[in-house]
Amino acid sequence: MASSSSTAAPQVYGADEVNAVVLDPGSFSTSVGYAGYDCPSMVFPSHYGEVVDGKGEKKRLFNDSFLHTSRENMKIKPILKNNIIIDWDGAVDQYNYMFKQMGVNPEDQPLMLTESTMNSYKNKEKALEVFLEQENYCAFYAVKQPTCVAFAHGKATCLVVDIGHDLITVTPVVDGFCLRNQVIGTNYAGAFLDQQLKQFLEDKNIDIVPQYRVKSKNTMYWENKESKPQFETKHYDYKIDNSVDEFSKLRVFQEMKETVLSCSLDDQAEKVPDADKDKMDVDYDEQRYFELPNGLNVPFTDAEANKIANSLFRPSDVLGNGIVKGWEEPHIGNIIETIGTADDKSSKLYVPLRRTKRPEEEEKEKDKDSNVDAKASNGADGSGKVKSEPCGLTKLVQTVLERIDIDWKPQLANNIIVTGSTSLIPELNKRLYEELSILNPSMKIRIQSVGNTVERKYSTWIGGSILASLGTFHQLWVSQAEYKEIGADRLIVNRFR
Amino acid sequence: MSMASDILDVLNVNKETRNEHQQKKKKKHIIHFEESANKRKKIGAMNRELANLMGPNLAPINITHHQPNKKFKDRLTDLQTIQPSWTSTPFTNGSRSDGLQLKHWVKGKLDLLESKKPYIYEKYNTSLDIPDFTEDDYKKLLKDINPDWSYKETKYLFDMAKRYDLRWAVIIDSYEYVPDEDEITVKKEDQNKVDDKEKSKDDEKKETKTYTPRTVEDLKDQLYKVSSKLLNSKKEDGVVKDVALIKALDSFDKNKEIERKKYLNRLLHRAPTEIAEEESLVIEARKFELAAKKMLMERAQLLQLLDSPQSSAPILQFLTSSGLTQLYNTLMTVDKSKKRKTEAPVAPQLGPNAIPYTQQLAKQQAVQQQAQAHKQQQQQGGSAAAGANGHHGDKKSQKQQQHQQQKPQSEILKLLQSRLTPEEMEVYGIKFHEDKVQAGVYLRSQKIVTFKPAVQSKVVEILNELGISMRLTMPTGAVCGKFDKLMHRIASLVDLKKQTDKIEAEVTLMKRQKGML
Ligand SMILES: Nc1ncnc2c1ncn2[C@@H]1O[C@H](COP(=O)(O)OP(=O)(O)O)[C@@H](O)[C@H]1O
């Protein structure tokens, strides 16, 4: 009797749990959890605190609550940049810290890592080495983030627009495969907004005081540049590293973005009254206040909030003097080159001379780029500026659509998936939709994104979770034996391109 | 101490019947009796009272019969042992060559047989059947298909095709083949094959000149042609297999494909004005089609009318009054169904030139008729018309009058009109209907117009706003008429509002489009 009723887990969804662990490192936060769950079990910032004690020994801290308080000799370091792991020691420490809390047993739990499509060859090699050799996981797989997003939305073919912290990327996904060479993106994402908010506050002569420095506060409203917050500072008898301040500002900015920003459909709506002029005539109904940790309430007019959010669409048109520090170089979307993984082609094994093709091709691509850019900007605002014009969100998507093979174009245009936490800004999707519809009158544009905040934020992880719990996926894991037999080189070329 | 017998006495149950009953029971439940007799010893005072009340009527089924000694909790644990539990079981996947063991949860106890069954998801591990070839094959058969392809590159292409299951979008995206030197400078082919990798490194610059990156069409062309050749050469008993497949493969034409994409591209890059024009043309065409259809239908109807009616049935059955109403009803339904049919194609709204001929005829006729009627009226100038005019006085009623006059007036009407003044007619409630009236008796309030549910709900809403109820308190003819008129007006206003809203939305959209472009 027992043998007849012994079936695998319910087969309706083709799921077969093997207790896989899913790890999704993002440029802002890193999430881990067991495959098959509908949201990650643990989400940590992609930063860690490094404390050097008296003997010069380093200790790493990961817990969110520790990072937002100060300690002597603590520095906060980023683990990832541009969605690529830059500090492997810190990363491995952090992951182990999380895995330990989850009670992961590497010997019989495979690990799935999500990676950026622009991940470098070296990084992939390192990941294989770390997880299969060093950490001794029985099996490992690296899956592309856009593929995960596609899975989370139940689409095999779609255009994934991921608006994260460091980068916006637009990736065509066909039958679950990312078209890596078609990926374009810019760095006009969450961090870009952070910087604008920072300058916005600087213009108002406001200083952001991190939470941990505030002992007590009185609520104050900002009226002019002389307005001063009323609060008592907490004094520490040691020096606090600048990185700690910067890190806690991230949180302030995030809250600010969550509560204040909103895109507008019309650019007319964002006529900003000159910041220097008297603001007596400002309509106070149109203001929103944001309270900083030190009790100072900063006013945002709707126009200002719109303008900052709209800069995702038109990065050249920003508040103030039009310069965003750190973003002075206009970015035209050639993300692979910017991140520097363009040379990092995977066909090393096949043909040792692969570089010969590159310069010519790049030349061509640039030509194509400028053509497309010129066309797009012509279409968008009639000004024929070429190249120096930074590439906004709509133009990015449009460029991908223009480049993609005609056979796939309508399908991709009909399945645009917008994800990433920055896409939670209200009206962003609507604006993207309207602009794309006008640019492509003969195509049916459809934009999809999940309404649920959690699902939107962690859609990459969720997709990984779905994938790693599929019965049909289990043949794809790279096991230790395979790793030893085939070697990292071939594995990367054949499996993790 | 009350006994069952006491109760039975109270209830006046006969002793004999009771005994009978008891005896029957006894036979049946001998075993139970014995058991329960044993048990009775243990029963406490209170329970004994209860048991006595039960009397000879034993419960037909002994509930605890099977496991008389088991307690409730024990039974629960028993259940658990019977139920299959979930076990974490290691399994191997047959589609893997490395024998990786993962663990999943399986219903049931760890069963050694289970692990020998093939993994259930193995069957989904399929791959495409793409033909294979060796370098010799290539040299013999395939070299001349596309001279600019080398064996190596073709092999590379086939590898890619296999790896990505012919997903061309992916293949072209990750197609990174760079030719060796010997593939371009054909003459050198024989020299130093072994270290051509090294050599070609030196000659980097040369190569970049001659190798043009492949397009999807190039790849498809090569793959299909090579495959077809290979299949063709694979003869089994002198017969080529997969003839259909080869035919399909051969039908691929690179130039046609390129052309197709060009057309598609142009289709997608039409300007909004072009699209609008196209759409309007399509709509016009549809209108013409509809008009033609309608005309055909009308002609068919005409022919049907001209057909002489069949009169084979005996006339006798229609002589009674019930027979007559039946005939009337059937005729009515036939008429109705006909009407519905003709209305099916909606008359398209077009310019005056596009009206189908029949319609135009009808229009002309109508105009003529009206003119005639007008003349008649003028000639007549009769007392009836004058009286009616005098009564109503306004232009609308005049029009109505005209309309009425258009029809041949019945004898009765003429008679009545000569005898009674309009005032009198109204007092008596006499009314003449211009159009056909449904047979039978009905209430006036039943005849109040209704609209489509969507419109109706809006009309009701507005009526509510006006403080008028849908149910008329005094549905006299005049009231009903007024009410009907009101309803119609509301409906047309509602419709107008909808139209304006729509047009306004369109206008703003157009404005925005203009503004953006
Ligand atoms: N509700 C929100 N509205 C706007 N921005 C948000 C919101 N929530 C988070 N963010 C911002 O989104 C960015 C993180 O996005 P995420 O998709 O997690 O990035 P990544 O995938 O690179 O880790 C951060 O800049 C964060 O401040």
UniProtKB/TrEMBL annotation, chain A:
<keyword id="KW-0227">DNA damage</keyword>
<dbReference type="GO" id="GO:0006325">
    <property type="term" value="P:chromatin organization"/>
</dbReference>
<keyword id="KW-0539">Nucleus</keyword>
<dbReference type="InterPro" id="IPR043129">
    <property type="entry name" value="ATPase_NBD"/>
</dbReference>
<keyword id="KW-0234">DNA repair</keyword>
<comment type="function">
    <text>Chromatin interaction component of the NuA4 histone acetyltransferase complex which is involved in transcriptional activation of selected genes principally by acetylation of nucleosomal histone H4 and H2A. The NuA4 complex is also involved in DNA repair. Is required for NuA4 complex integrity. Component of the SWR1 complex which mediates the ATP-dependent exchange of histone H2A for the H2A variant HZT1 leading to transcriptional regulation of selected genes by chromatin remodeling. Component of the INO80 complex which remodels chromatin by shifting nucleosomes and is involved in DNA repair.</text>
</comment>
<keyword id="KW-0804">Transcription</keyword>
<dbReference type="InterPro" id="IPR004000">
    <property type="entry name" value="Actin"/>
</dbReference>
<dbReference type="Pfam" id="PF00022">
    <property type="entry name" value="Actin"/>
</dbReference>
<feature type="region of interest" description="Disordered">
    <location>
        <begin position="350"/>
        <end position="388"/>
    </location>
</feature>
<comment type="similarity">
    <text>Belongs to the actin family. ARP4 subfamily.</text>
</comment>
<keyword id="KW-0805">Transcription regulation</keyword>
<dbReference type="GO" id="GO:0006281">
    <property type="term" value="P:DNA repair"/>
</dbReference>
<comment type="subunit">
    <text>Component of the NuA4 histone acetyltransferase complex, of the INO80 chromatin remodeling complex, and of the SWR1 chromatin remodeling complex.</text>
</comment>
<keyword id="KW-0010">Activator</keyword>
<keyword id="KW-0156">Chromatin regulator</keyword>
<dbReference type="GO" id="GO:0005634">
    <property type="term" value="C:nucleus"/>
</dbReference>
<protein>
    <recommendedName>
        <fullName>Actin-related protein 4</fullName>
    </recommendedName>
</protein>
<feature type="compositionally biased region" description="Basic and acidic residues">
    <location>
        <begin position="358"/>
        <end position="372"/>
    </location>
</feature>
TrEMBL record, chain B:
<dbReference type="GO" id="GO:0000812">
    <property type="term" value="C:Swr1 complex"/>
</dbReference>
<feature type="compositionally biased region" description="Low complexity">
    <location>
        <begin position="361"/>
        <end position="388"/>
    </location>
</feature>
<keyword id="KW-0805">Transcription regulation</keyword>
<feature type="compositionally biased region" description="Low complexity">
    <location>
        <begin position="399"/>
        <end position="409"/>
    </location>
</feature>
<comment type="function">
    <text>Component of the SWR1 complex which mediates the ATP-dependent exchange of histone H2A for the H2A variant HZT1 leading to transcriptional regulation of selected genes by chromatin remodeling. Component of the NuA4 histone acetyltransferase complex which is involved in transcriptional activation of selected genes principally by acetylation of nucleosomal histone H4 and H2A. The NuA4 complex is also involved in DNA repair.</text>
</comment>
<dbReference type="GO" id="GO:0000122">
    <property type="term" value="P:negative regulation of transcription by RNA polymerase II"/>
</dbReference>
<dbReference type="Pfam" id="PF16282">
    <property type="entry name" value="SANT_DAMP1_like"/>
</dbReference>
<feature type="region of interest" description="Disordered">
    <location>
        <begin position="192"/>
        <end position="212"/>
    </location>
</feature>
<dbReference type="GO" id="GO:0006281">
    <property type="term" value="P:DNA repair"/>
</dbReference>
<dbReference type="InterPro" id="IPR032563">
    <property type="entry name" value="DAMP1_SANT-like"/>
</dbReference>
<dbReference type="InterPro" id="IPR027109">
    <property type="entry name" value="Swc4/Dmap1"/>
</dbReference>
<feature type="domain" description="DAMP1 SANT/Myb-like">
    <location>
        <begin position="119"/>
        <end position="231"/>
    </location>
</feature>
<keyword id="KW-0156">Chromatin regulator</keyword>
<protein>
    <recommendedName>
        <fullName>SWR1-complex protein 4</fullName>
    </recommendedName>
</protein>
<feature type="region of interest" description="Disordered">
    <location>
        <begin position="361"/>
        <end position="410"/>
    </location>
</feature>
<dbReference type="GO" id="GO:0003714">
    <property type="term" value="F:transcription corepressor activity"/>
</dbReference>
<keyword id="KW-0539">Nucleus</keyword>
<comment type="similarity">
    <text>Belongs to the SWC4 family.</text>
</comment>
<dbReference type="GO" id="GO:0035267">
    <property type="term" value="C:NuA4 histone acetyltransferase complex"/>
</dbReference>
<dbReference type="GO" id="GO:0006338">
    <property type="term" value="P:chromatin remodeling"/>
</dbReference>
<keyword id="KW-0804">Transcription</keyword>
